[in-house]
């Protein structure tokens, strides 16, 4: 039975990944989840699996080298899937320091703990030990010309403190592969959406605001393009890369689903109207009049778009959920979980929202 160490498993993608892996492998794997539970980490996301025998949660900071070493000493870990990070661009503009700490130094600690546990005296690694570093397409910078795509060979050109910290962590992982022959892969994925996403990111923020009849704040001219992928397709890609990909390689993950932000916001308004039952009073205010253009994000990247040729050719990955279906599934999840939204938007979120949007 393989043992997985998942970092950041209480966050958006990490919790979807843990669900995906238990659905796929059931009792045939063990998952250890290490998470500090920052504002973005929420154990409620995992409430239905917390009592499984083959699951264990450790509350720990990946920056704590002793804690990371202890987890490796206690367990014979075969796979690491490293999600833990500070993940929101706007927050990185307000406070870059914590991004460098968690994303760069934290990644270094996880690498050191894995290397310390796995590397033999002769510098070799036992078969089957694999580390997967989950990264973003934002490391490649902004595409300015239509028809251009991010390939694995595209030079890094990060602009935000978030993407700079992720680029640094990618380079650390690359350096461990090149220097120590450390058995790893890097995946660079486009924007994800789906259940359990914290409402600081575009899609859940717009769903939440629209349902409450609040303004929908679109940055700049609303024509920035992101390449949206349903989170389960990302989880499938991570698993396929770890099972079938070539070690030491980078794989881009994205499903050719480019949309301008303003299109996304209009789709959300339309879909909410279609999905709310007849007579629901929230329908009355749900119109495009809610859209409000606000001051642009500093250093706002114009367009991201992934070319997934390598992952599809080498491991047979393809996205299964088209955007129309994915957005309906996402909205259905938020409809079914109003208490989740109410809890994560109470307290600290209110303060963040005030700070982020009041001056715009
Ligand atoms: P998230 O912010 O929802 O979750 C991050 C998780 O990491 C949280 O559970 C948080 O508590 C935990 N964490 C943060 N700091 C920690 C620390 N010091 N020690 C231990 N745990 C800590 O993020 P997400 O959207 O799920 O993203 C997960 C990973 O995927 C990140 O590495 C991100 O860069 C990458 N990624 C995200 C997207 C996206 O669209 N969201 C796209 C591509 C790649
Ligand atoms: P976001 O979800 O923060 O992801 P990222 O910045 O990592 O791509 O933002 C997606 C796009 O939506 C980005 O171009 C910024 C824009 N955006 C808004 O227009 N309004 C908002 O309130 C937010 C959160 C984002």
Describe this structure in words.
- It contains twelve helices and 13 strands.
- The protein is an alpha/beta fold.
- The strands form four sheets. A seven-stranded parallel beta sheet has the order 3-2-1-4-5-6-11, sandwiched between helices. It has a two-stranded parallel ribbon with strand order 7-10.
- Helix 4 packs parallel to helix 5.
- The chain is globular and about 70 Å long.
- The protein starts with a strand and ends with a helix.
- The mean pLDDT is 97.
- The chain binds nicotinamide-adenine-dinucleotide and thymidine-5'-diphosphate.
- The site of nicotinamide-adenine-dinucleotide has 30 residues, from helix 1, helix 4 and strand 5.
Question: Which features characterize this protein?
Answer:
binds nicotinamide-adenine-dinucleotide; Rossmann fold; 360 residues; 12 helices; alpha/beta; 13 strands; seven-stranded parallel β-sheet; binds thymidine-5'-diphosphate; globular
Report the uncertain regions: none
Order of helices and strands: EHEEHEHHEHEEHEEEHEEHEHHHH
Task: Tell how many strands the DSSP assignment holds.
Answer: 13
Structural class based on helices, strands and sheet pairing: alpha/beta
What's the CATH H-level superfamily name of the domain at 2-190 and 230-255 and 300-321?
NAD(P)-binding Rossmann-like Domain
Principal-axis shape: globular
Please list the strands of the largest sheet in the order they lie side by side: 3-2-1-4-5-6-11
The CATH class label of the domain at 2-190 and 230-255 and 300-321 is Alpha Beta
Give the cofactors and ligands: nicotinamide-adenine-dinucleotide, thymidine-5'-diphosphate
Q: Distance between termini?
A: 52 Å
Average pLDDT rating? 97
* Rg (CA only): 20 Å
Helix content: 40-55%
- Beta-strand share of residues: 15-25%
Q: How would you characterize the largest beta sheet?
A: 7 strands, parallel
Give the name of the CATH architecture of the domain at 2-190 and 230-255 and 300-321: 3-Layer(aba) Sandwich
**How many helices?**
12
Q: Would you tell me which CATH topology of the domain at 2-190 and 230-255 and 300-321 applies?
A: Rossmann fold
């Amino acid at each position: 039975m393989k043992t997985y160490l998942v970092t950041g498993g209480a966050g958006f993608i990490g919790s979807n990944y843990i669900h995906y892996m238990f659905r796929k492998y059931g009792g045939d794997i063990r998952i250890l989840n290490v998470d500090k539970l920052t504002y973005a980490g929420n154990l409620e996301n995992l409430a239905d699996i917390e009592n499984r025998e083959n699951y264990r949660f450790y509350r720990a900071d990946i920056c704590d080298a002793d804690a990371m070493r202890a987890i490796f000493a206690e367990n014979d870990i075969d796979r690491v899937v490293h999600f833990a990070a500070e993940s929101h661009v706007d927050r990185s503009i307000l406070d870059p320091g914590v991004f460098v700490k968690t994303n760069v130094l934290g990644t270094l600690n996880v690498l050191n703990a894995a290397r310390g546990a796995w590397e033999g005296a002769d510098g070799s690694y036992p078969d089957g030990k694999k580390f997967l570093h989950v990264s973003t397409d934002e490391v490649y910078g902004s595409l300015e010309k239509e028809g251009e795509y991010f390939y694995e060979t595209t030079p890094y050109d990060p602009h935000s403190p978030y993407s700079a910290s992720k680029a640094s962590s990618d380079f650390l992982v690359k350096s461990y592969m090149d220097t120590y022959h450390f058995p790893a892969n890097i995946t660079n994925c486009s924007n994800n959406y789906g259940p359990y996403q914290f409402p600081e990111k575009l899609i859940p923020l717009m769903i939440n605001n629209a349902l409450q009849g609040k303004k929908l704040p679109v940055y700049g001219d609303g024509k920035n393009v992101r390449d949206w992928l349903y989170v389960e397709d990302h989880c499938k890609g991570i698993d396929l890369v770890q099972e079938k990909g070539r070690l030491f390689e980078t794989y881009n993950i994205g499903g050719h689903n480019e949309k301008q932000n303003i299109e996304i916001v209009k789709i959300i308004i339309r879909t909410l109207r279609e999905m709310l039952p007849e007579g629901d009073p929230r329908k009355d205010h749900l119109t495009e009049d809610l859209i409000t253009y606000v001051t642009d994000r500093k250093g706002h990247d114009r367009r991201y778009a992934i070319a997934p040729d390598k992952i599809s050719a080498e491991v047979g990955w393809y996205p299964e959920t088209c955007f129309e279906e994915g957005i309906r599934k996402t909205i259905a999840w938020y409809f079914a979980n109003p208490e989740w939204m109410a809890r994560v938007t109470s307290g600290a979120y209110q303060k963040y929202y005030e700070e982020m949007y009041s001056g715009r």
